[in-house]
Amino acid sequence: MSEDSQRLVSIERTGAGRFTATNVRGGTTGFGTGSDADGGTDFTPVELLLAAIGGCTAADVDVATGRHAEPVEFTVTVTGDKISDDFGNRMTDLAVTFSVSFPEGASGDRARAILPRAVTVSHNRLCTVSRTVEIGTPVTATVTDA
To answer: Average of pLDDT values for 98-119?
Structure first.
């Protein structure tokens, strides 16, 4: 595996049930357990997973359609059911729904025409996040000395 292919995010605990993720470029995002004790507004890890799935496909689709027209509306909704069964806690029935509109005219018509294909290509080939979830990949967890 080359250095160019590796991705890294570090997670630091910032309080009870609260964390900050930092990427190698210095970007940060906070998240937590979403408990009522902390106001319940933090994204949970499951919500971040849903956002990553939707965001990945949204970015692909935006690049493809944005070459033709700037959208008037561009909303992606990602849903799923959190269950607990013999496999443990997990998400099922993940669904990504696009609501996108473009201006009238030739450029908007071109963007509208390629929208379904852009969504399909992202889902089937381009979106690393949803491809990883659908295909599955082993995850290891280890403990090192601090």
So the answer is: 98
Q: Give the whole-angstrom CA distance, residue 68 versus residue 72.
A: 13
Residue pLDDT, tens place only, 8-56: 999 999 998 999 999 999 999 999 987 665 567 889 999 999 999 999 9
Give the Cα separation of 82 and 90 in Å (integer).
Answer: 6
> Strand pairing partners for 13?
19
Q: Which structure tokens are listed for 29?
A: 């995002």
Model confidence, pTM: 0.90
Q: Which two tokens stand for residue 105?
A: 């005219």
Name the residue type at position 140: T
pLDDT (0 to 100) of residue 90: 96
Cα 117 to chain centroid distance, Å, stands at: 19
* Other CB atoms within 10 A of residue 19 CB: 16
65/40 Cα distance (integer angstroms): 36
Give the whole-angstrom CA distance, residue 78 versus residue 18: 23
Neighbour count for residue 103 (Cβ, 10 Å): 13
